[in-house]
Amino acid sequence: MYAPREESVNNSDSDSDSNYEDEDELTRILPPEVEDATTCLKARHVLGIMGFLGFANVYAMRVNLSVAIVAMVNNTAFPQPPSNNSFETCPGPNINNATTPDNGEFVWDEKTQGLVLGSFFYGYVLTQVPGGRLAELFGGKLVYGIGVLVTAVFTLLSPVAARINFPLFIIVRILEGMGEGVTFPSMHAMLARWIPPLERSKFGAYVYAGTNFGTILSLPLSGWLCSLEYDGGWPLSFYLFGVIGIIWFVFWMFLIYDTPTTHPRIDPQEKAFILASIGPQDEDEKAPIPWMNMLKCVPLWAILITQCGNSWAFYTQLTELPTYMAQILHFDIQSNALLSAVPYLTSWWCGILTSIIADWLLSKGYLSLSTSYKIFNSIASIVPSLGILGVAYVGCDKVAAQLLLALPGAFAGAVYAGNQMNHIALSPKYAGTMYGITNAAANMCGFLAPYVIGLIIEGRETLGQWRMVFYLAAGINIGANLFYVAFASAREQPWSRSQRLSTVN
User: N or C: which end of the chain has fewer CB within 10 A?
Assistant: First the structure.
C-alpha cells in the first residue's frame, strides 16, 4: 500500500498528466473517533494557534508602513499639478490637520515611496526557497521561529534607520523581508507533516488567516499611533509590533515541535491518528531536489502564475489603498487606516467559511480535489477583481467604494481552499520548497506593483490615473486564474515519491 495521498479523496479527478498503478485506491483515513475525545486542545491545535499568531504579527510588522508612510512623508513638498478636468479630482472636505499630517519628516516623491514600500520584498523573495528547504531538512520550528524573530528585530530598528539616512532604511527593510521570507514555506512544510489531508483546507485557512488578522489589527492601530504627538507618532507602531514579535518567539520555542513523533506531550491517540492519516513520512529527506522535474511540472506553473495574479491585486490594495483613500477620497489618517482594514476583516471570515465548505464537499465526495481547488481559486480571483473594477467605476462615491472593497473583497479568502494547499497535493515531500518557489515569484509583485503604480501616478493624483491602476490589477488577477483553471492538478507527481515508496505494494 502506498502512503495515503491527498489527491485520492475523490478518484473522479482525471488529470491526464500523471499515471499511477493505484489511481483507483481510496484514501485510508481513520475516523475522528479514533482520537481521544477528552483531549480538547490537541497538539496540532496548539500549532495552529501559534502559527496564526505568528502570521498575525509578521503581517502587522509588514503592513504598518503602508499607513505610517502617510505620516512620514511631507505631502506639501510636491504640489499637485493643476487639472483642467473637474471630474478628475474629488471634492475635499474640511480635514482636521491634527489627524492628517501633511508635513512629515521625509521628502519622498511617489517613485521613492514605491521604492520604500517595495524594498521589503527584495529581501522577502530571496529567502523563500531556502526557507522551505531548510524546514524540510531540519524542521520548521526553528526556521519559522527565527524568521519571526529576525522580522521583529529589524522592525524595531526601522525608525532609527529611517532617521539616520535613506539607504540604511532600505537595507533594514530588505533584511526584515529576508527574515519574514522563510515563514510561509516553513509553515507549509510543517502542515504537510502535522495535518491530515481532509483537514488541510480548513486548518490552512485558520493558520494563514493570521495574515488577515494582523492586517486588521495593524492598520487602524498604526493609524491611531501615527496621530499621536510623542516622537512624531509613526515610530510607535514599529516599536509595538517588534516587541510583541520577540515575546511570541519565546512561547513558540517552548510549545511547538517539528513533527508528531518528536512532540513529548502529544496524546498517543492523536499521534496515531495523524500518522495513519498522512502515512509514513519519507525517510530519504536529504535526497536531491528534482529541480528539472519541478521546472517541467505544468501544474506547479499553474500555481505560480495564479499566485502572481493574486499577489498583484493584493499588494495593489495593501500598499496603495491607504494612499488612494488619503489623496483621492480625502479620508483623514485614522479613518483611512480603519477603512483600509475592512476588506481584510471580511476576507478573514470568508476564508474560514469557504474552507469549511470545501472540506465538507470533499469529505462527502461531491467534488474531486482538483475541481475544488479550481472552483474556490476562481472565486478568490474573479469576485475581488470585479470589486476593484467597481471602485474604479464609482469614483468619488465613498460609500460605494467602501462596499465594493469590503463585500467582493471578502471572497479573496477563498484562496485558502484554492491554490494555497495545492503544493502539498502535488508533493508532500517537497511542499516547503515548492511553496518557496511560487511564493517568491508571487511576492516579486510586492515591489513590482508599487513601482509600476508609481510610474503610472507619477505625481498625478487623479481618478483617471488610479483607474489605470485598478484595471491593471483586475486584469492580471483574472487572466492568471484562467491559466490555473486550465492546467492545475491535484495528483501527486511521480518524482515526489522516494524509491522506497515507489517500490512498496
Answer: C
